[in-house]
Amino acid sequence: MSKMRAMLLESLAPIETNPLKLREIDRHQIKRPNEILMKIDACGVCRSQLHGIEGDWKKYGIPPALPTVPGHEIVGTVIETGPKVTKFKVGQRAGISPLYGSCRECDYCRVGKEHLCDLAEVTGESLLGGYAEYITITEDFATIVPDSMESAYAAPLFCAGVTAYKAVMASEPERGKKTGIFGVGGVGHMAVEFAKINGCRVIGFARSKSHLDVAKKVGADNVIEYSSNQGEFLSSLKKEEGLLDSAIVFAPSESVTDAAINSVKKGGTIVLATFGNIPSFDVTQEKTVRGTLIGSRKDMADVVRIAAENDLKVIYKTFPLEQANQVLMQLKQSKIEARAVLIP
Fold it and tell me: Which residues contact 329 (CB under 8 A, 6 or more apart)?
């Protein structure tokens, strides 16, 4: 059987110990008639992989088994198709999001919310992950990537992009609405843009100047440094902007979530796009707190279309596949400006 290079996680450990090992493993082969085989061109690096590798998310069952190949925002070139494939031809490019598959029959799947399916399969929580040279997937769960997009540009759209888009839509964006983005990194910088496309006034919040600069670069109307002293932070916000109509939280921190809830006016909406607890909630203010999770296949296709139509800025830097440990270390240290992309 043909082999392929992959960064394999054999045991959970701090990223400082270089737990991802470059291995030669069996190359994936088409097993179902509706599958495509892709040669991976690019795979974005998501913070969720860091949490999975280091064992932070064991309580959520992530990863479900070892060994595994991480990576769930993938763009590649189709090199082989199953006999029943009609959507793709050899030579076309396709993208894969965290949503690798679903049952297609439950109440969620029937209404186009297959990402909520109890049997949904997640890319990169098995040996089918993007930190490798090849991957297979059924044609229905792969998205066509237009010729106008470079693979390294498109890859972050397939997790960061759809997560940002879905979170913005959950905030019920409207022209002139004041929306705060808490955490302007790999996901947050795209949320700034999706909110601007929808006509919102967007304020970016981050602890570091580099991330505030990213928010400005992609069109935030204002940026405010986040302070762990909530009183000081809310005072700065009220002085510069007043209270927000909505807030979207990408920073996995209870204190940030609490500050976001308190930064929104009565009757406003707070969207949580990360794991975390809600420290306190005053029901008398009639605020809505809403969770959001990646997106459906339609959401994914919409993100690719909107990115192409609006020349969406995706801020990324490429690295060789073999440097996955070092890249995740930089991510842990907040040294990645926005998104890192691995190139096999």
Answer: 15, 16
Q: Mean pLDDT for each consecutive 10-residue tract of the chain (344 residues)? A: 95 97 97 98 95 91 92 98 98 98 97 96 94 98 97 98 98 97 95 98 95 96 95 95 97 92 97 87 94 95 98 97 98 93 98
In the numeric block, the tokens 């198709």 are attached to 81
Buried b (16+ CB within 10 A) or exposed e, 153-169: bbbbbbbbbbbbbbbbb
Bond into 63 cis (ω within 30): yes
Residue 148 in tokens: 């106008």
Q: How many residues does the chain have?
A: 344
Would the pTM of this model clear 0.70, i.e. be above it? yes
**161-291 carries CATH number 3.90.79.10:** no
Fold of 3-159+295-343: Quinone Oxidoreductase; Chain A, domain 1 (3.90.180)
